[in-house]
Amino acid sequence: MTKLSKCIFVAASLAMTAQAGTVLRLNAGTIETKRAESLMTAQLGNPAAAQDLIVQFKKPITEADKASLKNIGAEIFGYLPDDALMIRASWSKVQQWRQNGAVEAVLHFRADYKVSTAFAPSSIFNKDEQTAVLVKTFKPTETKDIALAIKNMAQSTVHVAEGKSVVAVVPRGMVRAVAALQGVEHVQPYVEMKPMHMTFDNDYGVITPLGIGDYSDINGTETGTKVMNFDGAWAMGLTGRNQIVAMADTGLDGGETNLSVDFQGAVIKGHIFGLFAKSWEDPMGHGTHVAGSVLGRGTASGARLKGGAYDAMFIPQGMWSPMMKNLTVPSKVQDLFIRAYADGARIHTNSWGSPRNLGAYDAYASSVDEFLFNNPDMLILFAAGNSGVDMNKDGRIDSGSISSPGTSKNALTVGASENQTTTGGIQVPVSKLRTGQESWGAEPIYSSLISDNPNGVAMFSSRGPTLDGRLKPEIVAPGTNILSNRSHVAGASELWGAYNADYAFSGGTSMATPLAAGGAAVVRQVLQEKFQIANPSGALMKATMMHTAVDMFPGQYGEVGAAKGQELLTRRPNADEGYGRVDMTRIAQMTAQTRFVDNKVGLGQNEQEMFTVTLARPGQILVNLVYTDAPASPDAAVAMVNDLDINVSGGGVTSAPRDRVNNNEIVELNNLPAGTYTITVMGTKVPQGKNGKQPYALVYTAREN
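Now predict its structure.
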C-alpha cells in the first residue's frame, strides 16, 4: 500500500543554484549592463526629478532590496531578466542609494528597449506610413496623459485610452518617440484578433456529404466528447454541476431574445463587447459552435449532441462588431475577465488570437498573466492557433507557431488533436485541400485524413515552443470535424458545413479549446465535490488536467523516426501535444492515491516544502507542479519571473535537472523500488511574489505495481 504524507520545512540557508546576471535579456537585444552604463550620455533634464529607470542587482532580488528602494521614494513597476527592476525614482537619489554596494548597474529606460521587434525597420521609405500601435503604460492613472502626448504628435490620432493601454495611429517614424514618453513600458503593432477556426482559405476542396440531419446517421463520435472519455465522467454524475463558465467570442445564437433550446436555462447573463453591437447575439456562428462544445444541453438532438459540461451555467460575451464584421477585442483585455469574474465565472474560454508575431510574449499575454496573478482562482483558456504548417517539407509540422494571447504563461493553452469520426465535415486526404500542397505537401501528412486517429495532432494546430523556449500548448483536445451548435441568426456561417438547422461541423483549435473548457468545469466539480477543495486555484485545475492527460506518443504515424515523419519524437511533455490529450475518465476516477496541494500562501526565496511518499512495493511516482507566475514585461526576452522547482529523491533516485523556463514542471519516475521518497518544492527565485512568496499547486500520485 502506498502512503503519502506532508512535511513543511523552511530552510533560510537553502543553497541558491541560480547566479545573478550581468546582462539584461530584452527583445531589443542582450544588454551588457556595466558597459551600457559606462556609455550613457549625460542625463538631460533635472536629475532630482523622477525618471523611469532600470536597476540591476548583483544577486537575486529580495524583499529587503525592494523595501530599500521604496524607502528612497521609488515606485517599482516590474521585473526584467536578469535580476533587474523597472522603477521610477530620482536619478540623484538612486545614485546615492546605490552606494550600499548591492547594485550592478543603473540604466535609463531607453526608448529602444521598449519597441517591439515585430515592427518593420523604420526607414526614409516608410517613416511617414501610418501605423496602428498598442502602447502599454506602467500606470492606469497616467494613460490619458500619455494618450494626449501621442495625440499632439504630428499626424497622430488616438482611438482608445483605457486601463494601461493606448491604441493609436502614428507615422512609423514616430514609434520611437512614443516609446520615449515617460510612463510607457512597451510599444507594439496593434494586431487584429481572429476566431481560431480553420478556414483552409475558404475552400475545402472536397466535402463529404453531410448526412440527412435526422440524427439516424451519427454514432456519438462527432462532438469530440467520446475521444475525451466524457462518458465515464458523466456516468459518475460529473457533468459540470454548480460551475460557471464564461466565453468571449462572436456571441451566442440569437442572444437574449432568441436562444436555441440547447442553451435555454443555461445562461446567467450576457455581456456586449462588440463595437456598435446592441446585443450579444452571434451573427457569425463561431461563438455558438464553441458554446455548444462547452455546455450545450443537447435538447434539440434528443441528448445525442451535448457539450462536455452540459450541466454548467454560462456567461457569453459577444465581441462581434456588425460594423467591422470581425471580433473587436477590448484593448484592455482584462475587462472581459473582470466582468465574467464579478458574475461568478471561474473558467473563461477564448477561441481567438493573433496569427502575427507567432510565439511572442506581448502586451496581450502579459495582461492575461497580470489578471490571473491577481485573481488566482480563475482558469483562463486560449486556443493555441491554427498556424501549423510543414513549409520545409520534411513531413513534420514546423515549430514555433503559437498565437498570442496563447503565449501567456498562466493561461491554459490548448492545441487540437484529431477527433475520430467519419461522419460529415471534411473527410478527404490533406492532398485534396486547396492549401494542402503548399502547407503540408510532404508525406506522411499529405495523404492523411484529419479525423481518423485520436493519437494524432491536427496538422494545422500551432506548435510550440514560444520564442523564449516555453512549453506551449500545455494540452490538446479534439479539434477536427467537430459537430456542435449552429447559430440561428440569418446569414451566420455554416463553418465546415451544416448538419441541419441546429448543428454544424467545424474544426480548429477554436473547437478544441471549448471542449477542454468543459473538461475544466468538470475538473473543478471533481475537486470541490470529491476532494472537498472549496475554491481550487486555476493552477490546481491546470495541474490536474496535465496530471491525468494521455501521452499520445509516438503520434498517428507510429514510431518510424523523424526522417519518416514521426509526429511526436519524445514522450510528454513536448511542444506538439504538451502534456497530452485531456482524459475525463482518468479525472473522474482519481482516488486517494492522488494528493492535491493548493498552497495559496506559497514559498519565498530559499524556502521549501516537502512531502513524503511510501511505496510498499515497487511502483511509479508522477508529480506535477504549476504556479501562476507574476506577469512579465513584454520588453523581456524571457517571460519567467519567479522560479519554483520540484525534486523527487529516495531509493537511490534523484529526479532530473530543474526547469528554468516554465512555470510548470513534471517528474515521472517508473520502476521504482519499494521505499520512502521525498517530493521537495523549492523557492529558487521569487523577485516578484505576493508578500514575498509565490503560491503554487502540486498534484502527485504514487502507484504500486
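The radius of gyration is 25 Å.
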